[in-house]
Amino acid sequence: METLTAAQYFFVYNAFSFTLATMAAATLFLWLSRSQVAPAYRTALTVSGLVTAIAAYHYFRIFESWSAAFSVRDGVVTATGLLFNDAYRYVDWLLTVPLLLIELVLVMRLSSSETASKATRLGFAAALMIILGYPGEIATDNTTRAIWGAISSIPFAYIVYELFVGLGAAIQRQPEGARVLVNRARWLTFASWGFYPIVYMMPFTSFSGSSVETGLQIGYTIADLIAKAGVGVLVFMIAVRKSAAEGYENGVLAGAPGLPADGSPAASHVASPAAGQPDTHN
Known about the structure:
The protein is mostly helical.
């Protein structure tokens, strides 16, 4: 790896630290918020929190590896001899990228058969995209990098097709209050995923040496923040909107037994007499 400047080293160092904290905080928020939505959407929040939890773990390992690969003394960065393990990032993507698509399908609450079909196909395509991109990421020449990048774009194109064509009709069936948010989640997923290949092609730009490494790490980190924590918050907002449209307030169905129509705690737990039966309390 090319020698980094102190500014480059700490830029990446602080980006990893910030992302680790963000992913951990997003995990807690998503899991603790499950009780605020209808039961049908709690699985989506569980999966969304799982995405950020996996990302938090891997960013901890990435952060550790980056710190171990370099030492800084008197403003001079030197390599320690330990290689920075960037494979953590691809292991993370292999697990989280399929789950990102699955959480979006789950929060849309399609039929059971449609949910299983789309989650399976999109999850497989996402995993295939990551697997095919890794040989190019570790390649030492740009030709090999370009070939594997082009091959991995095939499943990516299929995912884009499913997001905008395959799920198009399903999005139109969403409640009006949630439809805009679902569409935003779709576009945000596309935009953040479209940013990954741009960063992937960084070695083909006029940048060189340590600037390429810095650009790769910062670019991938920004995309991860948007695709995981950002989309996760949108999934929560969609779940809240859809829960409200279905008559739920703070995760409780308004007018459910033991609760008045406004969802506030019942004033009394004494059951009323059944219809046609005398009131023995009088």
